[in-house]
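Project standup — Tuesday

K.O.: blocked on the structure for the chain from last sprint. Re-posting the sequence here as requested.
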Amino acid sequence: MHDLIDIGANLTHESFDPDRDDIVARAAAAGVRRMIVTGTTLAASRRALALGEHASGVLFATVGVHPHHASEVDADTLAALRSLANTAAVVAIGECGLDYFRDYAPRDAQLRAFEAQLAIAVEVGKPVFLHQRDAHDPCVALLREYLPKINGGVAHCFTGNHAEMEQYLELGLHIGITGWICDERRGDALRAAVRALPLDRVLLETDAPYLLPRDLPDRPSSRRNEPSVLPHILQTLARHMGHPVAAVAAAATRNTERLFSLPPG
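H.V.: unblocked you, prediction finished:
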């Protein structure tokens, strides 16, 4: 069994309310002994931090506002995020970025919220947890300006192609791989890209409860993903990277500890 860390689990999601403790226990039994809980709104960030403080050393938190909620970001929101970000259990700023696929918030609002959160990351000295969909070029433009002053980051739930991955790598980012790599309908570009993904930049995540791997045996009828599925994603990723599973597992855990300043497991 490998010692794995799920860098992106939405454990504040309401679908986990009935059995959150069981979810964490199942993950540990599968070798996923640590998880980073994603903050997507100010309220979710507060809940993520509360989970991290309740399960110190097992759960950690990011704090941020997803681009879908960019219209909610004002001066009070940013002040609250800045305060949360200085808490020990918070290991990154985000989920922040741009989403021009859904466009749930106006693009100018997305850009303002993203830049403001990048500035917070500079201020507090923590890495960024990035979301990008159909907005690669404007995202990279902002990152080029801010990343030299930021303590690293991850392209969360990367689903892009080789050229996009190389641009992120050139910026110094890590690449977060989810169950998208298991999707026979949509994952071809990602499967091709990871052949060139360096071991020292790979991170593993489920994005639970989303992105349940389509090739998972005995998929639950609820289609709810959970962190215990991470070993399945690892197996698929290692096969397409062309490395032994143990090597990818060890690299991903080492990279996660280094990027997010986690104590060794």
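K.O.: great, moving the ticket to review. The mean pLDDT is 97. Residues 135 and 141 are 10 Å apart (CA to CA).
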